[in-house]
Amino acid sequence: MNRLWCLTLLSFSALAPAGGQTLEISPVAGWTRISKAPLGYASTVEGYDDDTTFRNGYSYGVRITINTPRYYGHELTYLQTDAKVRTVLQATEDDPRETKIGRVLNHQLSYNFLAYWMPKNERFRPFMTVGLEGRRSGNPHIDGWPSRPTYNYGFNYGGGIKIRLFSHALVRLDLRDNFTGKPYGLQFSNIITTAGGLVRQQQASVGIGITF
Predict the structure, then answer these.
(1) Mind listing the domains of the chain with CATH numbers?
(2) pTM score > 0.90 for this model?
(3) Under 8 Å CB-to-CB from 46, ≥6 apart: which residues?
(4) Tens place of pLDDT for every residue, the chain, 212 residues?
(5) Which of 159, 158, 171 is nearest to 123 (CA)?
């Protein structure tokens, strides 16, 4: 994923000066609310499908945007979310079920298409967006965790507003609704109803952008 990120960044930077387009680079930070979708059980003894779930966390990263001369833009985002995983582990049938919580880092790379409500150079530019994304879910720091980091793919949509502070700086507010497949490949007792589905993440972020 790091190699793909570097190649995409170089491509975006090369396109920025063409045809009156502008390049924005915006460090962002915010809060991510993660749904408690059941991820399965991690015990060697059979458990319950909702034994493992995500918990909310903080996100930070960077958005790189190429804007056309008027109403559209293309955006690449890298975010890292510092979240938690709650799971229940049981080594043998004679052992008690133990609830454990571990810290996990999720890495997200996404492409989004932006449609602005106002033309370029306006002070306030509300926008809507839709995009595709990939996410790497890292291993939580939990003793006895059986899985490796996994990669899942999905989509997102949302909106926001960019407010120009002066000619080469802006502040932006974003709201995104993200959906990806369930990570880790854990076991499920009810494969039909709970093994599939998506993990939903609602992200709110603020950032300061520099334009070129």
Answers:
(1) 2-211 (2.40.160.20)
(2) no
(3) 187, 189
(4) 555 455 455 555 554 555 567 999 999 999 999 999 999 999 989 899 999 999 999 999 999 999 998 899 999 999 999 999 999 999 888 899 999 999 999 999 999 999 999 998 899 999 999 999 999 999 998 998 988 999 999 999 999 999 999 989 999 999 999 999 999 999 999 888 788 899 999 999 999 999 99
(5) 171
